[in-house]
Amino acid sequence: MTLHGQHMPDALRAVAAVPIDLDGIGLRVLRDFVPTAETEWMGEILVPGRASASDFLIFGEDCEGEGVFEAIWLARPRARIEDQPVVCVGRYTWPQLTARDLADYLWALADTCTLMGIDASPVGSPNYELVSIAECFAPGSRRTADEAEALAAEEFPDFRAIFDPGVWERQIRTGRDR
User: According to the lineage, what is the superkingdom (predicted)?
Assistant: First the structure.
């Protein structure tokens, strides 16, 4: 499936074949991008004129059903999809810039996903399938999840400015912040 003329990158298709889950804790990478009609809710959390739902290609979701999604943010005009930043967004979660490009994202996944699910501690056994995918699609780009996030934040310091802060303030007041 193509969305906005974009095809799901082979690297994400490879990740989709790897279970990143343990007892419902994890990430489900989809085989195709979520259709635009199903992402209209993003308009509720974005600042009008700064970004729109069509600026995001959702490719993954949390396994807990919390409404947390992984997406490619089309922040760089005319750049290849693999060169776009990866973000974590949702109706009830603070937006997070995860990586400045797909290569960094692959290594961030390999760094945080163990055979037992998502675990940022250095104690768990690495998910060798994810390490293999990162080595295949992003050789020479190895970095930790913390390094990937720091580089992304450095390049896109105003990322959160495209989101309406009032959304989360209202959720905190009403007890819906997760």
Answer: Bacteria
